[in-house]
Amino acid sequence: MSAIVTSPHLKTYTLEEFWKLPDPPGGEKLELIGGVLYLTPPPGGTHNEVVARLVREIATFLKLKDDPGRLYLPRAAIWTGSATYLEPDLMYISQDLLAQMDLDHLTKADLVVEVISPGSAIYDRNAKAETYGALGVGELWLIDPDHRTLEAIRWDSRGRPSRDVLGKGAQAEAACLPGFKLTLENLFD
């Protein structure tokens, strides 16, 4: 991840300061990347519906495969160091990866999903996606209900991303969930 360059007049936060902030009054979400505070608007009905459908699809698959991994929803977070704290819309952590972490301090995930909302699209596609890559997330899905697409980002061993954008009629497959196939229409229709 490249260094975050900000104005010297911008207030940066430590995790301790971040955790002491009051909840935003309008349901917005606060996240922290490299000490920089990000505020995103609350999700709308379409966003919530897509997340609910995806949870159902993945949870059903995990149960059928008797997969011991875990599926996490917000407010579960990935956080590292003293200045980064992210709450994805959904994340899957395999049993092997989970065994390497403290349950009270999740630092990475096999699969992270962000559902793109108009008010957070630039943030999700740029700062947040780059941060997930730097944190060692195996795969990121950016689901865009407005364009009915799923962008899968995977990082190689050198941290270089590869991107596949899937649209109508496509099936998404997650490297960490062998055999799982998500038909995009199941998310949007």
Order of helices and strands: HEEHEEEEHEHEEEEEH
Strand numbers in spatial order across the main sheet: 3-6-7-8-9-10
Tally of DSSP β-strands? 12
Shape: globular
Strand percent estimate: 25-35%
CATH architecture: Alpha-Beta Complex
The helix content, as a percent range, equals 25-40%
Describe the structure.
This protein is of the alpha+beta class and 189 residues long. Helix content is 26%, strand content 28%. It has 5 helices and 12 strands. The protein has helices at 15-20, 45-64, 95-98, 121-135, 185-188; strands spanning 29-33, 36-40, 70-72, 78-80, 84-86, 90-93, 111-115, 139-144, 149-155, 161-166, 171-173, 181-183. The strands form 4 sheets. It has a 6-stranded mixed sheet, sandwiched between helices. It is globular and about 50 Å long. The N and C termini lie far apart (36 Å). The model has no long low-confidence stretch (mean pLDDT 92).
Task: Tell me the layout of helices and strands.
Layout: H1 15-20, E1 29-33, E2 36-40, H2 45-64, E3 70-72, E4 78-80, E5 84-86, E6 90-93, H3 95-98, E7 111-115, H4 121-135, E8 139-144, E9 149-155, E10 161-166, E11 171-173, E12 181-183, H5 185-188
Parallel strand pairs: 7-8
Antiparallel strand pairs: 1-2, 3-6, 4-5, 6-7, 8-9, 9-10, 11-12
